[in-house]
Each structure stands twice: as structure tokens, then as C-alpha cells.
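Marked as duplicate of an earlier ticket. Keeping the data here for the record.
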Amino acid sequence: MAETRETGGGLGGFVRRSGYIRKWLILGIAIGVIAGLGAVVFYLALDYAGDFLLGDLAGYRIPKPVGDGGDPGSAGFDRPWAIPLVVCGGALVSAWLVAKFAPEAEGHGTDSAIEAVHTDPRAIRGRAIVIKTIASALTIGSGGSGGREGPAAQISAGFGSMLTRWLNLSDEDGRIAVSLGIGSGIGAIFGAPLGGAVLAASIVYRRDFDYRALIPGFITSATAYSVLGSILGFDPLFGFVAADYRFDSPLDLGWFVVLGIVAAGVGYLYARIFYGTVALTARMPGHKVLKPAVGGLAVGLLGLAIPQVLASGYGWAQKATATDTLMAIPLWIVLLLPLAKILATSLSIGTGGSGGIFGPGVVVGAFVGAALWRLGDLVDAPGIPDSPATFVVVGMMACFGSVAHAPLAVMIMVAEMTGSFSVIPCAMVAVGIAYMLMSRTDVSIYRAQRLDREAADAARGDDGRRPPPPEATT
């Protein structure tokens, strides 16, 4: 055992012998740099894929949020017959690449990274990172409903896994390294460094918080954000959405109690429909490469009726924050869109496609808030604000924060993505209610999460003892 501990080369021995501060400065900065660069590579790959596949081939430009350039998108379909064919073709090629070269890259990716934290932090192969990047760019770029955070998380979590192998880190340090990769990758791709750091410490458990990953997460996530921002810019993804909102009346909280209840219900449906699709797909006959293609064809057909379900949908969430652009969307679409986006994501990713589920969850939550605002505005309900921005932002936080069992992390991330920290008092009520309702069920959008650290230790056969406090050395 002692001989094994000394493997990993001179650098590995140096890192393992380092005290807490020096070790996590080295590892944190290294993971952060790769997380930032990986997020840039995937962002550019997805942008080019979307412009070519949906834009040039299908003749449709999706709207983009302010942080991605703010393109309002196409007014309609130039070649509507091409939309289902392009979505189907992108899903087919993506599924073939995954099946041929890295089957573990199937699905949304974040669950496999969480599972690596709990079982084997050395398990993520470098090949899976490359295939995940290409396959997800093809799936989402062709119009499949998915988020860009899954590939970003798998890239940086995969690098943390490779560091664990190369430097022969202990399992304890390896688990932290992979957790840091998950949080910093997602934080970087969304421009939300503080939320990414908190996510690293909370995403692997449903009812617990890994304090050991929090402080290193500050270093890693800030590094990743700095790298990405220096190349792509530091503007929030959705700009400054509700920057002028001021909480000045306790009576406003009543609306956010309602929003929290509705968001919890929709979040519950998201997880149940998504994993119901996964189970149904597994039982259906046919080759695993063809199933995502059929799902892509269905998404393309759905997109002809409700274009907002295509691709990431962030641009449509941006439109939902402003009164004039939200009112331009037919009411029936606003009301149906949360369910339609859930269905499209399930057909795109739940059938075996490649892409994240965080991003679609944010869009679903945005339109939950938008729908509630539209209904309140329609009947001229008392206390309804003039702008839907606050409802949209808090809906993002409450819907996905509850079903991901990461309420604090998602609340901070969305506040950073929208430049809307002023909505926090309202968000605390909605997110708190949504999370408490969700915690009464066993439903989570991330099935690899463990209940808490004690349950995770028991599953691994650990004795449950916590490590000694960090050394006060450099």
C-alpha cells in the first residue's frame, strides 16, 4: 500500500504531501482552468453547430439571450419541412457516436459525474469527455431540447477524475476534485461562479452539504469563470433582468407562495416524465441508436407547433422577462410551454440523446413564472407587478432548485445569470416552499444523488468517520 501511495510521479507525490492550502490551490486552479477552457470549447462548438444545422440547413435562427448576443431569432420557419429532418438527423449522428465510442456519454452526463463521486472518482474516461462534447453539440445544435451544462460539467469533472488517476490522489481527495469539476463547469458555462461553488458542495446529496468542497470550490469556480469570461465576456447570460425591482411590501410575498407551490408541482412532473421516458425507452424494441432519432423526429414535429421547445430555449426565457415580448407570445403557448418543454427534453435526452437537463429546467421554471404572471395580469389581480421579470426569475429558481435538491445553489446561480439579486427576499419564500414540498417525495432530477453523507459512506462500506481537520500549512 505504501508503494502504491508513492506512484503518480514526482508531481503526484508533491501534491499528496502538500498541506491543505497548497494542495487545493494547485488542484483547484488546475481544474478551474480546464473547466473554463472546456466551457469555452463547448460553447463555441454548440454555437457553430446551431448556426449551421438549424440556421443554414433548416432556415431557422433561434432567439439568443443577451449574454449570447441577443439575436431576436427568425420570425418564422423558412423551410418548415426541414425542421423535423434536421432534429432527427442530429440526434441520429449523435447517438451513433456515443454508442460507437463512449456509451457512458449517453444522457445528460451530470448523473454519471455524481455517480463517480460516490463510487469511483477515477472512473471517467477521457474519451467520454470528447464524445460528450461533440454529441451534445450535435443534439442541441440541431434543435434537440437540452442544456449546455451537462457537457460542461462532464468535461471538468472528467479532468478531476483524470487528475485523481494521474496523481494517485486518495479517494477522499478524488471525490472532492470531481465535485469541484461539476460545480465549476456548470458555474462557468452559465457565468455564475458563486452558484457553481455552492453547487459543488450540494449537488451530490439530497439532504446534505459537503463542506469540504465549498472553500476549494471558491478557488476553482472563480478560476473557471475568469478563464471563460476573458475569452467570451463577463456579461450575465440574461443581462440585468430585474435590476430595478425593489422589495418594499410584505404583501408581495403572497404571490410567491403560490409560485412556489406551482413550481414544485411542475418540477415533480419534470422528473417523473423524464425518467418515465427513460424507462419506457429501455423497454421499447429497436436499436439504441434509432431511439434518440425517433425522439428527435417527434421534437421537430412538436417544434413546428411550439418553436420555443427547440434547442436550449434560453432566448425564449429572455423574451419572457419583458412585457412586450412576452405578450407577443400567444397565451396558449405560454400556458402549455412548461409541459411542452418537459416533453421535448424527455424525447431528446430521455431517449438516449446527449445534453444537459439543468438548462431546460430553468426554461421550464421561467415559463411557470411567466404563465402565472399572464393569468394574474389577465384578470387584473391585485398586487401583480407591471413586469413579469420577477416572476420569471423566481420561477427559474424555484422549479429547478426544488427538483435538483440544490435550492441555495440554484437560487444563487439564477441570480447571477440574471443580475437579479434584488429578488432574493421573494425567491427565498418561493424556493423554500417548493423545496419543502419536493423533500416530502423521493423524486429528484439527479438520480445518482445520495440522501446524505452517512448514507453515502454506508454504501461505500466506509466507517463513517470524518477526516481530521485540514492542516494549517501551505
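See parent ticket for discussion. The chain is about 65% helix and 0% strand.
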